[in-house]
Write a structure and sequence with these properties.
This protein has about 240 residues and is an alpha/beta fold. It contains 8 helices and 11 strands. The longest helix has 17 residues, at about 105-120. It starts with a strand and ends with a helix. Bound molecules: nicotinamide-adenine-dinucleotide. It catalyses: (S)-2,3,4,5-tetrahydrodipicolinate + NADP(+) + H2O = (2S,4S)-4-hydroxy-2,3,4,5-tetrahydrodipicolinate + NADPH + H(+); (S)-2,3,4,5-tetrahydrodipicolinate + NAD(+) + H2O = (2S,4S)-4-hydroxy-2,3,4,5-tetrahydrodipicolinate + NADH + H(+).
Length: about 240
Amino acid sequence: MNIALIGYGKMGKAIHEIAKERGHEAVLIIDADNLSDLTPENIRKADVAIEFTSPHTAYNNVKFCLENKVPVVCGSTGWLDKLDEMKALATEKQTGLIVASNFSVGVNIFFEVNKRLAQLMNGQSNYEVTLKEIHHTAKKDAPSGTAISLAEQVLEELGRKDKWVNEESAQPGDLSIISERIDPAPGTHFVKYSSAIDDIEIIHTAHNRTGFALGAVLAAEFLKNKVGFFGMKEVLNL
Ligand SMILES: NC(=O)c1ccc[n+]([C@@H]2O[C@H](COP(=O)([O-])OP(=O)(O)OC[C@H]3O[C@@H](n4cnc5c(N)ncnc54)[C@H](O)[C@@H]3O)[C@@H](O)[C@H]2O)c1
């Protein structure tokens, strides 16, 4: 498969390695120093684009790919207020789009465990729930996209919580997400239910970026020749 890599930082490079191992070729690599190479002619050489840049640049890059009818896998976090617009554009252009706050297989299994635990806890009002995430200090957004996904899953299932807040909160309806920035953590997420009697906590710890990179390449392989919006749940058949 011919892929375009948009963003060639830590993730772009890790994805390139895995893509090569799986027999794919990067026919276009775009980073901040060669943005002028991101032309309609160049992007159309790719079967799928993989976008890992930043919260401020992802929207324009995803839009550019879809407008040129190139399916796109986007891992950049912090821009999801524009996601619905991009889902509509994918449908309009009859092109594929995958956006995931976290591409790792382990985290996507963790998401399913999180949903189930929240369902079980819905009737157990003695338990207070909090979320925590720890990432490296270069991370630009807080809370992490993964923590937001975990929080939204909890809010969906747990009637006693109304909204997430990125601080410790004493308001009963608030779901607190605590963000810590410590090097060299690639990403740890905690969901903790505490009562006077006991605690139940689920934790996912990424050891390196390989899991995210492999998941992004699996998503690109899944997306080739598909139309519409998909998540990692579909890619991994969870
Ligand atoms: N979804 C996931 O599984 C997952 C996993 C890790 C990181 N991320 C997210 O992916 C993004 C990138 O992470 P990273 O660790 O590779 O960051 P990074 O800072 O190492 O790399 C980002 C790269 O994008 C380049 N860039 C900036 N503007 C650009 C533009 N307009 N076009 C093309 N390239 C541009 C930068 O020069 C840099 O090399 C972040 O938003 C991060 O939160 C997501």
